[in-house]
Design brief:
364 residues; alpha/beta; 38% helix
Length: 364
């Protein structure tokens, strides 16, 4: 189990541009690019940097789980203690990362709970998120939690979150108790998000069905399974026609959208090669890979080369800044954008904050 002391050591190393992982590898993130500082400018113009992938947690919400609370509130990973936001400490961390605004979200841990308990958890969390954002509106925005296992309740929660609490969209998992987002039972939720013109941020929870194969060294249950779950979720939304049914739905996919953008053109050939694996009654309006151009992806892909490839596949207009803070995946999320020689100054400005500002309806 990773100790807080080890996390603090890792945080100090990360701040210096060196990140250590349990596999014994070392990466110097600042070898080619100096660390960015606030205020950030691209092409001589000030840019408000908006990190759309930042997590938090509230002890009161987790406590509603009773005996399961400790396990869910403090998992044995670096960054878990910092998920409980202490505003001054969080602002200092954001300043060190050259992040003007974080868009806070909570990974869903309540989908397998009954409707009433899940509803209590979500209600409390959305209230706390609204309070936190109201305390520092220039530095924090947030995605609402939703009781997706009860879509009728989720519709009400989303309406309340946007119209009354000032939240900017919703954060959802990658699947709900084995039911894919393309299932018609979720259509009312997507319709409400489309009506409200707010984004849904998909953050994966892993693929527990692969637990045996993903056991062993390398934390493959996260390293591989989290991006895989996002890939599966997006593929179902595409192939089942959900994105055709809701063309105005704004979806943001964490971790660069998983693996989909790395091999999207394979999707265009699947039904040609294996027609028995495809439903002839689902008539997509365009090639599967074309739907990537209406999905947004965070920039948590680590390197300028990975950014170059993601841009080549989906377009710079579809990428937004993401770090996964407080989990130390990418402690200098702005730097690899500036290190991307393939991006124009306008591209950099859009990725760093302008696109997110438009999506969220906040000042750029």
């Amino acid at each position: 189990m990773t100790t807080r002391r080890n996390f603090l050591k890792a945080g100090v190393a990360a701040a210096a541009g060196i990140v250590f992982c349990s596999c014994g590898m070392v990466h110097n993130a600042s070898a080619q690019q100096p660390r960015q500082k606030l205020p950030v400018a691209a092409g001589g113009n000030r840019v408000k940097t908006i990190d759309i992938h930042a997590h938090c947690h509230f002890r009161e919400a987790g406590a509603l789980l009773g005996a399961d609370a400790d396990k869910l509130q403090l998992p044995p990973v670096n960054g878990a203690p910092e998920a409980f936001v202490e505003i001054d400490k969080r602002l200092a961390a954001m300043d060190s990362q050259a992040v003007d605004m974080e868009v806070l979200s909570i990974n869903p841990f309540w989908y397998d709970r009954d409707r009433d308990l899940a509803g209590q958890i979500v209600k409390l969390q959305n209230e706390r998120l609204a309070e936190l954002c109201a305390a520092k509106p220039d530095r924090f925005a947030a995605f609402a939690s939703l009781t997706l296992q009860a879509p009728d309740l989720a519709v009400h929660e989303l309406e309340t979150a946007i119209r009354k609490q000032g939240l900017k969209g919703a954060a959802i998992g990658g699947v709900v108790n084995g039911i894919e987002f393309s299932d018609p039972k979720f259509h009312p939720v997507w319709a409400k998000a489309e009506e409200l013109s707010v984004p849904l941020f998909i953050h994966p929870q892993g693929v527990p069905e692969l637990g045996k194969r993903l056991s062993g060294n390398g934390w493959l249950g996260n390293t591989i399974a989290n991006p895989l779950e996002t890939t599966i979720a997006l593929s179902h939304l595409i192939f089942e026609g959900t994105l055709d049914r809701f063309p105005g739905l704004k979806v943001i996919a964490a971790h660069g959208g998983g693996y989909l953008a790395s091999y999207a053109d394979r999707s265009d050939h699947a039904c040609l090669v294996g027609p028995k694996g495809c439903n002839p009654e689902v008539k997509l309006k365009k090639a599967p890979s074309e739907y990537l151009k209406q999905i947004y992806f965070d920039s948590l892909v680590f390197t300028p080369e990975a950014i170059r490839h993601l841009v080549a596949q989906v377009g710079a207009s579809q990428i937004v800044l993401g770090s996964d803070y407080p989990y130390p995946w990418q402690m200098a999320p702005v730097d690899h954008i500036f290190a991307s020689a393939s991006l124009s100054d306008d591209d950099k400005a859009n990725i760093l904050g302008r696109t997110a500002a438009r999506l969220l309806g906040v000042a750029a």
